């Protein structure tokens, strides 16, 4: 048979939905009545805000728990907590909420942007993230190119994230914590969404993922200046940016738009990376400038920044046992260049 003591024990550990304290801690179980002949329990509870969806969720929890404990029927009334209790606990609740990644002052956000597709922006993103991890930094990577996600494949990630409580745990590879839309679709299915949905997904990557302690969070942006880039500029006003281009004049011209967008929204541009700068023959050592010369320098000049590094055309040394088709080994020529770029970036950020 249910008793008042038993009911208080059952309900006392439930969390009040707004202050995130237990009903016991808030002394929020105001009244309990038991009608033994009808096996009916009625309770009166106090919460921060009544008439809300959160109240309805708590109500469902209470009914289910009491019925599982033996009550035939359950009646619930809600009232609002006294102002003195709210004032006491609101500041603590606000502090807890502010510990999210977006409000962290210990995380530096770095967006990797380009004006157009096909310049190797995602390749640069994954290798820069890995290079920072090789320098001993705590690194996260968001594949924010929601339509054209490619990071999991590039890094050879075969696992999926797992959920712990209400948070998603990112997948870790090469010391980098990774989250991508690619983890949440089946069989490489296309994403058919309008702009507002993209923003919601990006917001989820920030707020619903358990990142832990992160020093540098890189975002592989989609090319151009569309919805996702706009959302990033809104959500992360202190974000830094790296602009990727090829030496071709047209690629640099288009990349300047992404750079101009960063400057107009007060994002600091850390520098330009020129990808596919040249092809070097293994036989003769001769360099061929397949896409021309000067694009990176011209872009850096236009954006009043520097060229952080020039990456030649070359492919990683693939390892069938630890397959990651776009990651360069630490002793590879390009792996060393990425380490130099990462060192330049951290040095500039620490000044």
Short key terms for the protein model shown above:
10 helices, alpha/beta, GMP Synthetase, Chain A, domain 3, nine-stranded mixed β-sheet, 14 strands, 2 domains, 351 residues, three-stranded mixed β-sheet, Rossmann fold
Gist?
The protein has 351 residues and is an alpha/beta fold. It contains 10 helices and 14 strands.
Structure report:
The protein is 35% helix and 23% strand. By secondary structure, the chain is α/β, with parallel strands linked by helices. The chain has two domains: 94 residues, Fe-S cluster assembly (FSCA) (GMP Synthetase, Chain A, domain 3); 250 residues, Rossmann fold. Strands 4, 5, 8, 9, 10, 11, 12, 13 and 14 form a nine-stranded mixed beta sheet that branches. The protein is elongated and about 95 Å long. 36% of the residues are buried.
Uncertain segments of ≥5 residues (pLDDT<50)? Answer: 94-99
Order of helices and strands: HEEHEHEHEHEEEEHEHEHEEHEH
β-strand percent reads 15-25%
Please write the CATH class name of the largest domain.
Alpha Beta
Note the overall shape: elongated
Q: How many individual domains?
A: 2
Q: What average pLDDT do the residues reach?
A: 85
- SS summary, helix count: 10
Label the CATH architecture of the largest domain. Answer: 3-Layer(aba) Sandwich
**Number of DSSP strands?**
14
């Amino acid at each position: 048979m249910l008793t008042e003591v038993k009911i208080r024990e059952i309900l006392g550990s439930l969390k009040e939905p707004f202050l995130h304290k237990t009903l016991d801690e808030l002394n929020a179980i105001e009244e309990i009545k038991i009608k033994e002949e009808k096996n009916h329990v009625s309770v009166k509870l106090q919460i921060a805000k009544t008439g809300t969806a959160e109240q309805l969720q708590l109500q469902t929890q209470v009914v289910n728990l009491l019925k599982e404990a033996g009550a035939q029927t359950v009646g619930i009334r809600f009232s609002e907590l006294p102002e003195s209790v709210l004032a006491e606990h609101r500041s603590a609740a606000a502090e807890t909420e502010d510990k999210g990644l977006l409000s962290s002052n210990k995380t530096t956000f770095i967006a990797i942007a380009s004006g157009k597709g096909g310049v190797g922006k995602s390749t640069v993103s994954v290798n820069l993230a890995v290079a920072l991890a090789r320098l001993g930094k705590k690194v996260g990577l968001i594949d924010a190119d929601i339509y054209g996600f490619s990071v999991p494949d590039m890094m050879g990630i075969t696992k999926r994230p797992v959920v712990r409580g209400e948070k998603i745990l990112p997948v870790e590879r090469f010391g980098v914590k990774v989250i991508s839309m690619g983890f949440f679709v089946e069989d490489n299915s296309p994403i058919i969404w309008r702009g507002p949905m993209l923003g919601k997904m990006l917001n989820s990557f920030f707020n619903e993922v358990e990142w832990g302690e992160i020093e540098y969070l890189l975002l592989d942006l989609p090319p151009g200046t569309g919805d996702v880039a706009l959302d990033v500029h809104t959500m992360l006003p202190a974000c830094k940016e790296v602009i990727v281009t090829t030496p071709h004049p047209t690629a640099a011209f288009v990349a300047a738009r992404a750079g101009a967008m960063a400057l107009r929204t007060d994002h600091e541009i850390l520098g330009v990376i020129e990808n596919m700068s040249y092809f070097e023959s293994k036989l003769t050592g001769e360099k061929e400038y397949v896409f021309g010369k000067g694009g990176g320098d011209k872009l850096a000049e236009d954006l009043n920044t520097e060229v952080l590094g020039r990456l030649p055309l070359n492919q990683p040394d693939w390892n069938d046992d630890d397959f990651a088709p776009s990651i360069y080994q630490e002793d590879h020529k390009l792996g060393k260049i990425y380490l130099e770029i990462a060192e330049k970036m951290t040095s500039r950020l620490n000044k």
